[in-house]
Amino acid sequence: MAGSLKKVIAGVILDLDGTLLNTDGIVIDVLKVIMVKYGKQWDERKAHIIVGKTPLEAAAALVEDYGLPCGADEFLAKITPMFSDQLRNIKAYPGANRLIKHLSLHKVPMALASNSGRASIESKISYHQGWKESFSAIVAGDEVTAPKPSPEIFLEAAKRLNLETSDCLVIEDSLPGVTGGKAAGMGVVAVPSLPKQSHLYMAADEVINSLLDLRPEMWGLPPFEDWIQGTLPIEPWHIGGAVIKGFGRGSKILGIPTANLSTQGYSALLSEHPSGVYLGWAGLSTRGVYKVVMSIGWNPYFNNTEKTIEPWLLHEFDGDFYGEELRLAIVGYIRPETNFPSLESLVAKIHEDGRIAERALDLPLYSKFRDDPYLKGSAL
Ligand code: ADP
Ligand code: RBF
Ligand code: MG
């Protein structure tokens, strides 16, 4: 693992798509449209067949898997302009801007190493302020003889940074990227962009759930200094709706009720945010605003198939409030979701999360969002 390597890293090589940028969002939008034109239907479960591939490899995989009546070249020519139209809409992953700013501030040299073509990389990053200037080198898939999983792209990045390969840390979401980074003799942190895949990343030195979980000090790099009382402030975001019946186990099995929202219509919003445990404020239309701590994700202990949000309001209510409008302002991050050896240890951890949230939400940087107009419904 990271610690045992005892490496002091001098430079960081970052992958772009799926690591810094949530490219999947637009890829899925485009593939849904194109598959309908071929009389097929895009299958969300097939996302893994394109992750980490070059555009042509991805096109070939799709043509084969869906049995499309065209060549990979022809398919690629059809979808390329569709993607180009969408590049401006690609969002940075939570934690991406924070990481780039942090490394820039501390003068840690950074490179981008992506299987995408040079023009596509330049275009995508142009929509993100300060990114282009932050990278001392950019190595594209069309600038090397062999793309990832070949180490070539990483070796070239190290060369352009003027660093020994063993002094570089690679941050990657895809398996080909992890393979390439290890083959280049570098430290590799994997941030899988697809859920429930971490067991496939054995080759990586460390697997983290999201960029929010990166601990640069594990690699001899300057630590983040924005954690406060066990919480990480994030750009606040909102989600709300009527409280519905959940898995029926919150109060019954854990003794911790969680007021569930319908995920209908929210899956796109939830997919923008890493799974994990968060704190925030909850508005109940007829009652008021309360502190809240919640998990977002697949609840590894129960291994759910759907990504849900499980908000535990830190208040004793007299009874249920099913059907009421619940509005959440999510303002900080606590930890990744994890599995636990026993129900007792899961419950103990959730109570600890509750205490952390309870205390931190009194900090002015969080308490100010108690008055967020969204919570009272007046924003609509
Ligand atoms: P379900 O599986 O239907 O979500 P839970 O056992 O998790 O059932 O209980 C959640 C319900 O309990 C909420 O929908 C709400 O009506 C009620 N409830 C009472 N107190 C709280 C609280 N402090 N936080 C969240 N929900 C609460
Ligand atoms: N479930 C997990 O499997 N792993 C977790 O780490 C986890 N953390 C949670 C943290 C908080 C603050 C809350 C409210 C819930 C958490 N849960 C976690 C979800 C819990 O399993 C869920 O509320 C129940 O499954 C009820 O549906
Ligand atoms: Mg619940």
Automatic annotation (TrEMBL):
Nucleotide-binding in keyword set: yes
The protein's annotated pathway: Cofactor biosynthesis; FMN biosynthesis; FMN from riboflavin (ATP route): step 1/1
Pfam annotation, one family: HAD_2
Entry's EC annotation: 2.7.1.26
Keyword Membrane attributed: no
Ranges of residues in domain Riboflavin kinase: 232-362
This protein's UniProt keywords: ATP-binding, Flavoprotein, FMN, Kinase, Nucleotide-binding, Transferase
InterPro entries, sorted: HAD-like_sf (IPR036412), HAD-SF_hydro_IA (IPR006439), HAD_2 (IPR041492), HAD_sf (IPR023214), PGP-like_dom2 (IPR023198), Riboflavin_kinase (IPR023468), Riboflavin_kinase_bac/euk (IPR015865), Riboflavin_kinase_dom_sf (IPR023465)
Gene Ontology MF, one: riboflavin kinase activity
Biological process according to GO: FMN biosynthetic process; riboflavin biosynthetic process
Record protein name field: riboflavin kinase
Organism: Rhizophora mucronata (Asiatic mangrove)
